[in-house]
Specification:
The protein is 69% helix and 0% strand.
Length: 300
């Protein structure tokens, strides 16, 4: 397993190392949670319109990636400010407990906040350019996504009020696919909504399983997530149910989805053996493979 970041890993007298630190603070390995739905939406547009405009695809990927990275860094800032990450002794790095960049004094809270504003601002600027040049109506979805990305962690802190799972399902399922569908004038709304729902559920499962080891730290910080409200036993049952329903839904949409039974089995194995890390890996695999299966169905 990767070790937590430390100041010794970066030579901050060099500009390249400062950039490397900034990239590490965004938790880049988890940006696939937003980039997979974007790619899935473009694959669906390829099926419906016969087009995959590469320049637009790259621009949208960059825009969404910047906003997701900004959401990750602002989450780190506020989770440090409210004490969640500072007192999280049950974390499973690198999956839970944040990037650990602030807690391990690799980057200051003020620098993390500035980085998040830079990322969010860059994403907003690029999104404005895309919308104004191609389809202004898509900007409404961008506004909703930006507001949810920021207030997911910032006061009033939607995740603290038990709304985090719904926000994640919307931001990583419905919004990106609906936005791209509008941008490229898609026609099959039913197919889009089905695939968006699957991706939303799969991404919500990532948040859910990652919230389980963070439960006690969240409670101490006053974050009343759904997992914290249910408690460990019911949260694990809910994870099993959410993963199973997501897999069953995906199987209805693509003939390739049988492969999803493998990560689903890993999720259950982790729960039965009380090895949550296995379940976390299984959920991440389920999300990635689920997106790939749907893409394959769109393109074949």
């Amino acid at each position: 397993m990767p070790v937590e970041p430390s100041i010794q890993q970066f030579d901050l007298t060099r500009r390249s190392e400062r950039i490397k630190r900034a990239i590490a603070a965004t938790r880049p390995a988890f940006l696939t949670a937003s980039l997979i739905p974007v790619t899935l939406a473009f694959s669906l547009m390829q099926q419906q319109t016969g087009e995959w405009p590469m320049a637009l695809y790259i621009a949208v990927m960059l825009c969404v990636g910047l906003i997701h990275a900004g959401a990750n860094t602002i989450n780190d800032y506020f989770d440090h400010k409210n004490g969640t990450d500072l007192h999280n002794v049950d974390r499973i790095y690198p999956f839970t407990g944040g990037s650990r960049m602030i807690q391990n004094e690799v980057i200051s809270p003020q620098e993390m906040r500035s980085l998040s504003f830079l990322l969010l601002g860059s994403g907003v600027f690029l999104g404005l350019m895309i919308g104004l040049l191609i389809e202004p109506n898509v900007l409404w979805f961008g506004v909703v996504g930006l507001v949810l990305a920021y207030f997911y962690s910032a006061p009033p802190c939607l995740v603290c009020k038990g709304l985090g799972d719904v926000v994640i399902a919307v931001c990583f399922g419905l919004l990106p696919m609906l936005g791209i569908f509008t941008l490229m004038h898609g026609t099959d709304w039913q197919a889009m909504l089905h695939q968006a729902t699957v991706m939303g559920l799969l991404t919500a499962a990532i948040l859910w399983v990652n919230s389980i080891p963070d439960m006690q730290a969240d409670i101490k910080a006053g974050k009343q997530t759904l997992v914290a409200r249910l408690g460990l036993c019911y949260a694990q049952w809910a994870l099993a149910l959410l993963s199973t329903l997501s897999t069953a839904y995906a199987i209805q949409l693509t003939s390739f989805a049988w492969i999803l039974t493998l990560p689903l089995g890993l999720i259950f194995l982790g729960l039965v053996r009380n090895k949550l890390q296995l379940s976390i890996i299984g959920v991440l695999m389920l999300h990635t493979l689920g997106g790939l299966c749907l893409m394959a169905e769109n393109l074949v």
